[in-house]
Amino acid sequence: MKVTISDVAKAANVAKSTVSKVLNDSPRISADTKRKVREIMKEMNYIPSSMATGLAKRSSKTVGLLVDMSKQSEFLNQFFYNIIGGIESVIGPLGYELTLFNVQHAEGEEHFLNRLVRSGRVDGIIANNSVLTEELSLALNELNFPYISIGEIHAPGSWVDFDNEAGGRMLTSHLLQQGYSRPAFVGGERNERIFTRRLAGYLQALRENGTAGSSDWIINVEANEHEGYQAALRLLQCAERPDSFVCMTAYAAFGVLKAARELGVNVPGQLGIASFDEYPLSPYTTPPLTSLNIETLRLGEASGSWLMERIQSGQATARQLLLQPELIGRESTAGLQ
Fold first, then answer.
1. Comparison of pLDDT for 2 and 202, the residue scoring more
2. How do strand 97-102 and strand 147-150 relate by DSSP bridges?
């Protein structure tokens, strides 16, 4: 009867995960444990399966970019393609190909790990932090498998991101400096880290300015034109209305502009509008939108470079990079009249 990894683990009185780490020569396992497990493997004439040993020894020359196709906002935008361009500019000259994989959490973590990681289909993974959950990150850490998160993660691992909290402070402080005193915050899903970081910066700027915000002016909706329009239409007809908006995306800001025009609210004389991103037409709206310049190409370049270093060196030291956004002031926040 064929000897299995479970048989080896039982004979060595260790966990199956420990045997897997010994097979992959993990630095987390002591030399004594490695020696003991290897001796038992030899005694039992254990032949490791490709699933157990292949992760570190074979190369597909492929990097997987994980995308949840159920979240269209994550891949139907210019940022996504800038990131792809940045990754390709690094891995292409090294002989690697970038392949997109649709990963939906409903399929289960084990299915994802078996389909891409344990099967050896990819040598490394790059994924947005909405796809790369803490549980998946920990599982990849256990397998000593190379990955980079685009966006901050809590689990030990490497990630690249823009300082979204600083961006929230920058936009809100700019509005306050321009004379607006009642900024609202529109767009973003409550449990997403990018929203919580940007909102934290917004709230910090209000506190530092001694400005009392209103929880009624923090609107959690999908950050698109329709929801921005609906939120602004509602808030601008309240008895106590905001005099400015911090918008999660330029699309949400377009919706706010549309609502202001319909209600006869002058921008910027009666209402200031600022957005977290430039894309697609912030400089060309009427009036042009104040926004943040976020160079997503650099996120792709950094993630691709770090992943290649991780694959080629075999070293798993966690690294983090926070890039700073740049404020671009335009007419939409020129001040109250």
1. 202
2. unpaired
